[in-house]
């Protein structure tokens, strides 16, 4: 790390030394003992501008306090049937670790429907997975490897991506905004697999709008990405939809489905949240109800990307409708 980087870290640290309670308490939940690595993440997110990184981090800490994010891992989504419905429609899971010890998260972008619960439940579920990753998974990985492991790998399965994705853009923008502002630089690399033609068209529109730092993290792999991913992880950690070409879909596979509520990751996560709820309020019955979180306004970049995606998907929709209408026209030969 260069001299300029070290100076920026020390300067940001000095600014944070004046942070008072309860911001300091929630900051401990953010850095989990890896303070320098956390400061670097926020500095990277603001192109090493110390003043901007400081504002971003303090805003994040205020957001956490105002929305009691420190308590979200004690707020299970109940009943279990509702949580199961969320898992069936928000396809995400952890399939294992890379050879460097980074957790591998799998996301079924194309087949996630987000239609079985309110937006608040999906946001709650997403933040809980973020917090479980940052407060349980990553500290454990760091301890096992004897070095700081503060980022993960994400494998995005585009199987089943359709024009109906248009209806998901608003929710995905909310989730993306929360991540960008409060969990910056937590993903080392995004691997995109099983990409249909519609993704390729959308990617051409979105790619130029992304910051160079983000673009460099995204790799679009051919087919299911199996051969490329096996260079960085063992087959046991490979998401089920990457095990072989033509495996069908993110939802069903002969291999273990890491999106399933029965998968060990989700069982451990859900049991952990239920246990935390009993520790926090041992005499209180667990109440049904979503955990409402204030969503910050999306950055200009996020808004532009969302609008561009909507425009591109609408073009596809119009093109499909035109194609279907012309298919029904019979042309008589003279």
From TrEMBL:
Organism: Gossypium stocksii
UniProt feature coiled coil, ranges: none
Gene3D superfamilies in alphabetical order: CRAL-TRIO lipid binding domain (3.40.525.10)
PROSITE patterns associated with the record: CRAL_TRIO
Tree of life domain: Eukaryota
All residue ranges annotated as the CRAL-TRIO domain in the record: 79-239
Pfam families tied to this protein: CRAL_TRIO, CRAL_TRIO_N
Upper lineage: Eukaryota, Viridiplantae, Streptophyta, Embryophyta, Tracheophyta
Protein name per UniProt: CRAL-TRIO domain-containing protein
Region forming the signal peptide: none
